[in-house]
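Section 5.1 Outputs to date
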Amino acid sequence: MAPKKKFTKEQIIDAAFEIARTEGVDAVTIRKVAEKLGGSIAPIYVNFKEAGELVEEVYQRTLTVSRQILLEQNSGHPFHDIGAASIRFAREYPVLFRDLVMKKNDQAKYNEAETQGFIQMMRTDPDLNGLTDDELGMILLKMKMFQVGMSVMVANELLPDHYTEEQMIQLLNSAAEDVISTAKRSSEKS
């Protein structure tokens, strides 16, 4: 007879996500999740065959949270929103950000579908009118390099304490203006 479920799958994922949020993904173990829930490991194994499945759910939850932060930006300028969301995620979830960006893992590998999704968003940005998908892709890559660097600084508290999220976004916008104007000048020459 299968063990009786004491916790829902969602409760287990919530507990695992909380552990990852504060201690890192590597800290997520079946035993630690059971302790956090105040129960035994048996109900967890009813829902997950192994710890790897649970960790995958933690990564999926992290991506869901990241996408939600992006949706909340909604300034009318999607390109701006992508960068602002990254800074906010790095500030609110620094441990998870470091796990995703600074440790080698399959979750952070280049994803063509995600890149194309961002390019689709960028097409609706009035500041980027007239640029080709290739040009938008290059702008995205350049800004991603800048934004990841800034987000790493945020997650690792490498910026002065008085440096606000608004100031970071202004710096990001300034860099974006430079990259976009260079792309537009290059496009006009072609």
